[in-house]
Amino acid sequence: MSRTPATSTDLTASSLCPPELDSARLPAHVAVIMDGNGRWAKARGLPRVVGHQAGVEALKSTLRQCSDWGIGALTAYAFSTENWSRPGDEVNFLMTLFEGVLQKELRSLEEEQVRIRFLGDLDGLPEKLQQLIDDATERTAKNSGIHFNVCTNYGGRRELVRAAQRLAKQAASGTLDPETIDENSFARELFTVGDQDPDLLIRTSGEYRISNFLLWQLAYAEIHVTDVFWPDFNADVLKQALLDYQGRNRRFGGLDPITT
Ligand code: FPP
Questions:
Q1: What is the average per-residue pLDDT within 92-102?
Q2: Nearest Cα to 214, choosing from 200, 204, 225, 227?
Q3: E strand or H helix at 152, and its extent?
Q4: Domain boundaries, the chain
Protein backbone atom coordinates (compact mmCIF):
# COMPACT_ATOMS: atom_id res chain seq x y z
CA MET A 1 0.00 0.00 0.00
CA SER A 2 2.95 2.36 -0.14
CA ARG A 3 2.27 5.96 -1.02
CA THR A 4 2.77 9.32 0.59
CA PRO A 5 0.94 9.72 3.92
CA ALA A 6 -2.20 11.85 3.90
CA THR A 7 -1.73 15.53 4.64
CA SER A 8 -4.18 18.32 5.37
CA THR A 9 -3.86 19.51 1.76
CA ASP A 10 -5.05 16.17 0.34
CA LEU A 11 -8.42 15.87 -1.32
CA THR A 12 -11.18 14.82 1.05
CA ALA A 13 -12.65 11.32 0.82
CA SER A 14 -15.93 12.58 -0.63
CA SER A 15 -14.20 14.44 -3.44
CA LEU A 16 -12.27 11.26 -4.33
CA CYS A 17 -15.53 9.28 -4.49
CA PRO A 18 -16.65 8.64 -8.11
CA PRO A 19 -19.28 11.25 -9.09
CA GLU A 20 -21.81 8.54 -10.03
CA LEU A 21 -21.99 7.58 -6.33
CA ASP A 22 -23.80 9.53 -3.63
CA SER A 23 -20.97 10.10 -1.16
CA ALA A 24 -23.49 10.76 1.63
CA ARG A 25 -25.08 7.31 1.21
CA LEU A 26 -22.08 5.03 1.10
CA PRO A 27 -22.11 1.91 3.27
CA ALA A 28 -20.26 2.53 6.52
CA HIS A 29 -18.97 -1.04 6.46
CA VAL A 30 -18.35 -3.33 3.48
CA ALA A 31 -17.64 -7.06 3.85
CA VAL A 32 -16.11 -9.13 1.04
CA ILE A 33 -15.94 -12.84 0.29
CA MET A 34 -12.92 -12.96 -1.99
CA ASP A 35 -13.78 -16.00 -4.09
CA GLY A 36 -12.37 -17.27 -7.37
CA ASN A 37 -8.60 -16.99 -6.93
CA GLY A 38 -8.07 -20.60 -7.97
CA ARG A 39 -10.34 -20.39 -11.02
CA TRP A 40 -8.69 -17.11 -12.07
CA ALA A 41 -5.32 -18.87 -12.04
CA LYS A 42 -6.62 -22.03 -13.74
CA ALA A 43 -8.12 -19.97 -16.56
CA ARG A 44 -4.62 -18.67 -17.22
CA GLY A 45 -2.90 -22.07 -16.96
CA LEU A 46 -1.23 -20.95 -13.71
CA PRO A 47 -0.95 -22.69 -10.32
CA ARG A 48 -3.78 -21.86 -7.90
CA VAL A 49 -1.40 -20.06 -5.55
CA VAL A 50 -0.69 -17.45 -8.20
CA GLY A 51 -4.37 -16.58 -7.93
CA HIS A 52 -3.91 -15.96 -4.20
CA GLN A 53 -0.94 -13.69 -4.91
CA ALA A 54 -3.02 -11.73 -7.39
CA GLY A 55 -5.81 -11.70 -4.80
CA VAL A 56 -3.58 -9.82 -2.38
CA GLU A 57 -3.09 -7.07 -4.96
CA ALA A 58 -6.86 -6.82 -5.48
CA LEU A 59 -7.37 -6.61 -1.72
CA LYS A 60 -4.76 -3.86 -1.35
CA SER A 61 -6.37 -1.74 -4.04
CA THR A 62 -9.88 -2.38 -2.65
CA LEU A 63 -8.73 -1.21 0.77
CA ARG A 64 -7.25 1.91 -0.83
CA GLN A 65 -10.46 2.65 -2.76
CA CYS A 66 -12.72 2.11 0.26
CA SER A 67 -10.52 4.41 2.32
CA ASP A 68 -10.27 7.06 -0.39
CA TRP A 69 -14.01 7.02 -1.09
CA GLY A 70 -14.99 7.41 2.57
CA ILE A 71 -16.06 3.90 3.60
CA GLY A 72 -15.36 3.43 7.32
CA ALA A 73 -14.67 -0.30 7.53
CA LEU A 74 -13.70 -3.20 5.25
CA THR A 75 -13.88 -6.80 6.43
CA ALA A 76 -12.34 -9.47 4.18
CA TYR A 77 -12.70 -13.25 4.43
CA ALA A 78 -9.12 -14.45 3.96
CA PHE A 79 -9.11 -17.95 5.51
CA SER A 80 -12.01 -19.91 6.93
CA THR A 81 -11.98 -22.65 9.56
CA GLU A 82 -12.95 -24.96 6.68
CA ASN A 83 -9.98 -23.92 4.51
CA TRP A 84 -7.64 -26.19 6.53
CA SER A 85 -9.08 -29.07 4.48
CA ARG A 86 -7.27 -27.78 1.36
CA PRO A 87 -4.03 -29.49 0.25
CA GLY A 88 -1.21 -28.86 2.76
CA ASP A 89 0.91 -27.05 0.18
CA GLU A 90 -1.83 -24.52 -0.52
CA VAL A 91 -2.48 -23.92 3.20
CA ASN A 92 1.25 -23.45 3.85
CA PHE A 93 1.47 -21.08 0.91
CA LEU A 94 -1.40 -18.99 2.26
CA MET A 95 0.09 -18.76 5.76
CA THR A 96 3.45 -17.70 4.32
CA LEU A 97 1.67 -15.24 2.03
CA PHE A 98 -0.14 -13.64 4.99
CA GLU A 99 3.17 -13.36 6.86
CA GLY A 100 4.92 -11.78 3.88
CA VAL A 101 2.11 -9.30 3.25
CA LEU A 102 2.09 -8.20 6.89
CA GLN A 103 5.85 -7.74 6.92
CA LYS A 104 5.84 -5.81 3.65
CA GLU A 105 2.76 -3.66 4.17
CA LEU A 106 2.76 -2.77 7.86
CA ARG A 107 4.68 0.48 7.39
CA SER A 108 2.23 1.70 4.72
CA LEU A 109 -0.78 0.67 6.81
CA GLU A 110 0.61 2.74 9.66
CA GLU A 111 1.31 5.73 7.42
CA GLU A 112 -2.15 5.59 5.92
CA GLN A 113 -3.79 5.45 9.36
CA VAL A 114 -5.39 2.03 8.70
CA ARG A 115 -6.49 0.16 11.84
CA ILE A 116 -6.00 -3.53 11.15
CA ARG A 117 -7.47 -6.40 13.18
CA PHE A 118 -7.48 -10.13 12.50
CA LEU A 119 -10.73 -11.87 13.42
CA GLY A 120 -10.84 -15.58 14.13
CA ASP A 121 -9.21 -18.30 16.22
CA LEU A 122 -5.74 -16.82 16.00
CA ASP A 123 -4.26 -19.40 18.41
CA GLY A 124 -4.59 -21.97 15.62
CA LEU A 125 -2.29 -20.02 13.28
CA PRO A 126 1.47 -20.55 12.92
CA GLU A 127 3.47 -18.91 15.75
CA LYS A 128 5.28 -16.47 13.45
CA LEU A 129 2.02 -15.29 11.90
CA GLN A 130 0.52 -14.81 15.36
CA GLN A 131 3.45 -12.59 16.34
CA LEU A 132 3.14 -10.50 13.18
CA ILE A 133 -0.61 -10.17 13.78
CA ASP A 134 -0.08 -9.06 17.38
CA ASP A 135 2.50 -6.50 16.29
CA ALA A 136 0.33 -5.10 13.45
CA THR A 137 -2.77 -4.96 15.67
CA GLU A 138 -0.92 -3.13 18.42
CA ARG A 139 0.88 -0.70 16.14
CA THR A 140 -2.27 0.34 14.28
CA ALA A 141 -4.79 0.17 17.14
CA LYS A 142 -5.02 3.92 17.63
CA ASN A 143 -5.07 4.82 13.94
CA SER A 144 -7.82 7.17 12.84
CA GLY A 145 -8.49 5.80 9.34
CA ILE A 146 -10.42 2.90 7.86
CA HIS A 147 -10.97 -0.19 10.01
CA PHE A 148 -9.60 -3.18 8.11
CA ASN A 149 -10.63 -6.58 9.45
CA VAL A 150 -9.04 -9.72 8.04
CA CYS A 151 -10.99 -12.86 8.93
CA THR A 152 -8.36 -15.55 9.36
CA ASN A 153 -9.13 -19.03 10.71
CA TYR A 154 -12.61 -17.60 11.01
CA GLY A 155 -15.93 -19.45 11.15
CA GLY A 156 -19.24 -17.73 11.85
CA ARG A 157 -20.74 -20.63 13.80
CA ARG A 158 -17.58 -20.99 15.85
CA GLU A 159 -17.68 -17.26 16.61
CA LEU A 160 -21.26 -17.62 17.89
CA VAL A 161 -20.38 -20.63 20.04
CA ARG A 162 -17.39 -18.73 21.44
CA ALA A 163 -19.62 -15.78 22.34
CA ALA A 164 -22.09 -18.11 24.08
CA GLN A 165 -19.24 -19.76 26.01
CA ARG A 166 -17.87 -16.39 27.12
CA LEU A 167 -21.27 -15.30 28.38
CA ALA A 168 -21.85 -18.67 30.07
CA LYS A 169 -18.52 -18.38 31.90
CA GLN A 170 -19.45 -14.91 33.17
CA ALA A 171 -22.83 -16.23 34.31
CA ALA A 172 -21.25 -19.25 36.02
CA SER A 173 -18.79 -17.04 37.87
CA GLY A 174 -21.63 -14.80 39.06
CA THR A 175 -20.51 -11.65 37.21
CA LEU A 176 -23.42 -11.77 34.77
CA ASP A 177 -27.15 -12.19 35.31
CA PRO A 178 -28.38 -14.36 32.38
CA GLU A 179 -31.64 -12.39 32.33
CA THR A 180 -29.69 -9.28 31.26
CA ILE A 181 -28.22 -10.88 28.11
CA ASP A 182 -29.54 -9.05 25.07
CA GLU A 183 -28.45 -8.51 21.45
CA ASN A 184 -26.05 -5.73 22.43
CA SER A 185 -24.31 -7.72 25.16
CA PHE A 186 -24.11 -10.75 22.83
CA ALA A 187 -22.58 -8.66 20.04
CA ARG A 188 -19.94 -7.39 22.46
CA GLU A 189 -18.58 -10.96 22.70
CA LEU A 190 -18.08 -11.26 18.94
CA PHE A 191 -14.74 -10.67 17.20
CA THR A 192 -16.22 -7.62 15.49
CA VAL A 193 -16.81 -5.77 18.78
CA GLY A 194 -16.55 -2.03 18.20
CA ASP A 195 -17.47 -2.09 14.51
CA GLN A 196 -21.01 -1.61 13.30
CA ASP A 197 -22.51 -4.44 11.25
CA PRO A 198 -21.69 -4.53 7.53
CA ASP A 199 -24.22 -2.70 5.35
CA LEU A 200 -23.04 -4.44 2.19
CA LEU A 201 -21.66 -7.92 1.51
CA ILE A 202 -19.89 -8.41 -1.81
CA ARG A 203 -19.15 -11.92 -3.04
CA THR A 204 -17.10 -12.53 -6.16
CA SER A 205 -17.09 -15.42 -8.65
CA GLY A 206 -20.85 -15.71 -8.97
CA GLU A 207 -21.52 -17.93 -5.96
CA TYR A 208 -24.68 -17.22 -3.95
CA ARG A 209 -23.55 -18.43 -0.54
CA ILE A 210 -22.59 -16.90 2.79
CA SER A 211 -20.13 -19.72 3.58
CA ASN A 212 -20.16 -19.37 7.38
CA PHE A 213 -19.13 -15.70 7.18
CA LEU A 214 -20.31 -13.15 9.78
CA LEU A 215 -23.55 -15.04 10.44
CA TRP A 216 -24.71 -12.63 13.14
CA GLN A 217 -23.36 -9.42 11.65
CA LEU A 218 -24.85 -9.87 8.16
CA ALA A 219 -28.43 -10.04 9.46
CA TYR A 220 -29.48 -6.90 7.55
CA ALA A 221 -26.67 -6.55 5.01
CA GLU A 222 -27.48 -5.97 1.36
CA ILE A 223 -25.85 -8.68 -0.76
CA HIS A 224 -24.14 -8.03 -4.09
CA VAL A 225 -22.79 -10.96 -6.11
CA THR A 226 -20.52 -10.33 -9.07
CA ASP A 227 -19.29 -12.91 -11.58
CA VAL A 228 -15.82 -11.36 -11.54
CA PHE A 229 -13.11 -13.54 -9.96
CA TRP A 230 -11.51 -11.86 -6.96
CA PRO A 231 -8.13 -11.08 -8.59
CA ASP A 232 -10.01 -9.06 -11.25
CA PHE A 233 -11.94 -7.05 -8.65
CA ASN A 234 -11.16 -3.39 -9.20
CA ALA A 235 -12.46 0.14 -8.70
CA ASP A 236 -15.04 -0.25 -11.44
CA VAL A 237 -16.49 -3.47 -9.98
CA LEU A 238 -16.54 -1.89 -6.53
CA LYS A 239 -18.36 1.12 -7.97
CA GLN A 240 -20.97 -1.17 -9.57
CA ALA A 241 -21.52 -2.90 -6.20
CA LEU A 242 -21.94 0.46 -4.49
CA LEU A 243 -24.35 1.69 -7.17
CA ASP A 244 -26.38 -1.50 -6.69
CA TYR A 245 -26.34 -0.87 -2.92
CA GLN A 246 -27.46 2.74 -3.36
CA GLY A 247 -30.39 1.54 -5.44
CA ARG A 248 -31.67 -0.73 -2.65
CA ASN A 249 -34.53 0.17 -0.36
CA ARG A 250 -33.37 -0.84 3.12
CA ARG A 251 -36.36 -1.45 5.35
CA PHE A 252 -34.84 -3.45 8.23
CA GLY A 253 -38.08 -5.41 8.53
CA GLY A 254 -40.26 -2.28 8.56
CA LEU A 255 -42.43 -0.73 5.86
CA ASP A 256 -41.28 1.50 3.05
CA PRO A 257 -42.25 5.08 4.09
CA ILE A 258 -42.40 6.16 0.43
CA THR A 259 -44.68 3.49 -1.03
CA THR A 260 -46.91 2.87 2.01
C1 FPP B 1 -10.88 -17.97 -2.24
O2 FPP B 1 -10.56 -18.35 -3.56
C3 FPP B 1 -9.73 -17.30 -1.64
C4 FPP B 1 -9.08 -17.68 -0.51
C5 FPP B 1 -9.46 -18.87 0.27
C6 FPP B 1 -7.91 -16.95 -0.01
C7 FPP B 1 -8.08 -15.46 -0.03
C8 FPP B 1 -6.84 -14.83 0.40
C9 FPP B 1 -6.30 -13.74 -0.18
C10 FPP B 1 -6.90 -13.01 -1.31
C11 FPP B 1 -5.06 -13.21 0.39
C12 FPP B 1 -5.38 -12.18 1.44
C13 FPP B 1 -4.15 -11.73 2.11
C14 FPP B 1 -4.09 -11.03 3.27
C15 FPP B 1 -2.83 -10.77 3.94
C16 FPP B 1 -5.27 -10.54 3.93
P17 FPP B 1 -10.54 -19.91 -3.91
O18 FPP B 1 -9.16 -20.42 -3.68
O19 FPP B 1 -11.62 -20.60 -3.15
O20 FPP B 1 -10.88 -19.86 -5.43
P21 FPP B 1 -11.69 -20.98 -6.23
O22 FPP B 1 -13.06 -20.99 -5.66
O23 FPP B 1 -11.65 -20.45 -7.63
O24 FPP B 1 -10.98 -22.27 -6.05
A1: 98
A2: 200
A3: strand 147-154
A4: 22-246
User: What are the backbone angles phi and psi of residue 96, rounded to the nearest 5°?
Assistant: -65, -35
Q: Cα of 214 to ligand 1 centre, how many Å?
A: 17
pLDDT above 70 covers a percentage of the chain that reads: 93
Edge-to-edge order in the sheet of strand 222-225? 115-119, 147-154, 73-80, 29-33, 200-203, 222-225
List residues bridging with 30 in a β-sheet.
74, 200
Given a cut of 70, is residue 7 above it in pLDDT?
no
CB atoms inside a 10 Å sphere around CB 162: 15
Residue nearest to atom 10 of ligand 1 (CA): 55
Quote the ligand 1 centre to 220 CA distance (angstroms). 25
Q: What is the pTM of this model?
A: 0.93
Contact 119, 191 (CB under 8 A): yes
CB atoms within 10 A of CB 87: 9
With a 6 A CB cut-off, is 38 part of the ligand 1 pocket? yes
* Residues annotated as part of the active site: 35, 83
Q: Is the Cβ atom of 35 under 6 angstroms away from ligand 1?
A: yes
What was the pLDDT predicted at 257?
Answer: 66
- Band (pLDDT 50/70/90 cuts) for residue 6 is very low
Are 67 and 142 a contacting pair, CB within 8 Å? Answer: no
CATH placement of domain 22-246: 3.40.1180.10
Helix 48-69 vs helix 235-246: angle between axes, to the nearest 10 degrees?
Answer: 60
